[in-house]
Amino acid sequence: MAPRKDRVSYFFDADVGSVYYGPNHPMKPHRLCMAHSLILGYGLHEKLEVYRPHKAYPQEFAQFHSTDYVEFLHRITPEMTDYYKDQLVRYNMGEDCPVFDGLIDFCKIYTGGTIDGAVRLNHGLCDIAINWSGGLHHAKKQEASGFCYINDLVLGILELLKYHARVLYIDIDIHHGDGVEEAFYMTDRVMTVSFHKYGDYFFPGTGDVKDIGERDGKFYAVNVPFKDGIDDAGFHKLFKPVMTKVMEIFQPGAVVLQCGADSLAGDRLGCFNLSIDGHAECVKFMKKFAVPLLVTGGGGYTKQNVARAWTYETAVLLDAQLPNELPVTEYYEYFRPDYLLKPPVNTLIDNGNAKSYLQAIKNTIMENLRAIVHAPSVQMHEVPPDSYIPEVDQDDLTSPDERFSQFQKDKMVARDDEYYEDEYDQDHDTEEPRRHA
Ligand SMILES: [Zn+2]
């Protein structure tokens, strides 16, 4: 019997929510349990296929990352940091990217979910794959960066490139998607489009509109730099026309959408004024193109808003309607005082994006995109067959089929009651923000 196709495959393992970056660190993986709990509370799991992701193997990490860095991540524990000071400096680990208990398992799970989603999309086993635990877009080939260790997005895109001639990456996190852009900066097979805050030394400092890719990748990196306080209207004044044009000229076989929620108003590290509706509008807009879609999380440092946004975006991907009153879940008190899915937006930050500024950015980007149409070297309609193995994947790893048989997939369909978690984050985000990522 042919395997049944899911409309939406959803990947989650509660173990990602139990790791702790440290008492003063803004990244709280517990937000993933809060989001999942709200998704269950609204009953959305009844419309999804829920899978527990496989734990990614070192060889899978090494498809992008250097083997010495991968080995180090497997070896290092909090107790050993005094003995490995040089290596910690070399791999950019310390304050922003601390060594914590369970670090490597955390990486294996969030990366496994993104790769599994790509594999299911490649095999036509779903239309949409969701991994809110993934989206760690800053990680580099041989170093950690901005709370990210392994770049699951790069690995997911490499997986998609085995079956698709062109893959589009879109990033709506407030921070520039630098790790993904850098990985594919010189190829025309992956177009990266990042919408982010740029300027004032905001992390990571890259993502100027002038950065457009190099060599074969020239014009295939698109950067949309905003200033503080961008609102829904301003954001979509660029997002919609730019993405329409990109879809028209690039015609990707699959789309990866990183939905970092630190671009929401009121984020602990962010400085944008997007509402949950405005953020989710990006998801709604991309879904309409009906191209295989891999959706991940990313940043997001006001936990209750992260949970709200990703729950609502799950509903958007399912075409489900949700009442604004939140269901009672184990984390209900986090959503005080209103207990609403979409509380009124509190815009505390002035919008520094003048109409003329947005228009100028749009003009520059549209002009760059027009250059692609006239680029003689790009053949837009040649899609390789399924067996095609792209140049970027030279390793002799086991094929997706061997690694991930239907039998294993079926075994991974977990019971709903396995997903209730007892742990409770104690620190309630009382510390002052002091870092960026
Ligand atoms: Zn971010």
UniProtKB/TrEMBL annotation:
Enzyme Commission identifier(s): 3.5.1.98
The UniProt record lists the keyword Repressor: no
Acidic residues composition-biased segments: 418-430
Signal sequence segment: none
Enzymatic reactions: N(6)-acetyl-L-lysyl-[histone] + H2O = L-lysyl-[histone] + acetate
Top-rank taxon: Eukaryota
Compartment annotation: Nucleus
PANTHER family, per the entry: HISTONE DEACETYLASE 9, HISTONE DEACETYLASE HDAC1-RELATED
Protein name: Histone deacetylase
Organism listed in the record: Klebsormidium nitens
Binding site for a divalent metal cation: D173, H175, D262
InterPro entries given in the database record: HDAC_I/II (IPR003084), HDACs (IPR000286), His_deacetylse_dom (IPR023801), His_deacetylse_dom_sf (IPR037138), Ureohydrolase_dom_sf (IPR023696)
Compositionally skewed regions (Basic and acidic residues) per UniProt: 400-417
Pfam families xrefs: Hist_deacetyl
Domain Histone deacetylase positions: 25-316
UniProt region (Disordered), positions on chain: 384-437
GO molecular function, a single term: metal ion binding
Keyword set, alphabetical order: Chromatin regulator, Hydrolase, Metal-binding, Nucleus, Transcription, Transcription regulation
Main location: nucleus
GO annotation, cellular component aspect: histone deacetylase complex
Family (UniProt): Belongs to the histone deacetylase family. HD Type 1 subfamily.
